[in-house]
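Consider this one:
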Amino acid sequence: MTHQSIWTDLQGVDFEQRYIDAGGIRTRYLHAGKKGNPALIFIHGTGGHAEAYVRNLAAHAEHFDVYALDMIGHGYSAKPDYDYTLPHYVAHIVGFMDALGLKTASLSGESLGGWVASHVAIAHPQRIEKLVLNTAGGDKIDFTALARIVDLSLQAVDDPSWERLETRLRWLMHRKDLVHDDLVRSRQAIYEKPEMKASMRHILTMHTPETRRQYGIQPEQWANIKQPTLVLWTDHDPTAAVAVGEALHALIPGSKLVVMKDCGHWPQFEDPETFNRVHIDFLRGL
């Protein structure tokens, strides 16, 4: 049996963990790469945190100024007592960029993070260089899968037992063996925090059919996205079929579609070699 660890993914990587005030939200982030290089921000999904990208920092740091943050209400970032709707997420990302002095950046968002990244690109097009929508959430998600996300997330935060956290993480992956003990314990440490119960309910505000429709991006808005865009999907995504990614690709003029094989909802973690190659080539314009 091969033993895996988040730390082994980061050993030898020149990175830092820091906190910054992003528009009044104390925000935790991981950083790697050289200041002055093109900025890249990784944005995780529902209930996630920056560790979703530990297998991607080193490769991207060779070319970019790389950040992976905990979004508002997530991970070790602040958890204010109000519902986190799309405008709050967008303001947080823009506030994060402002706090770091980043006039522009490329955004790469997974699941909810892809939905947030899309809204940032539409609301602040002058700030975004390139856009990656990685199994991106939004109004096109299967509502049965949406209900499953809500159910598993509430179970995990109300009873942050090893079994609950492992089940929540294994749901994300096509290869279940990739959910190693270190990953489970990393998330469990977050979900055990007393404030996480209320925060999860604020997070899940965006996970009802009504709010999905309310904040859904209209076809004409997708058509107006000017940034080079990569739609990255997988053949075993539990939230939406490949056809959803294909439809999104068709709506965004000039976008590129890549479907990664044998991956679920976390392709950047499940197959980092392929993800890093495809992702870096796109961002570098190769």
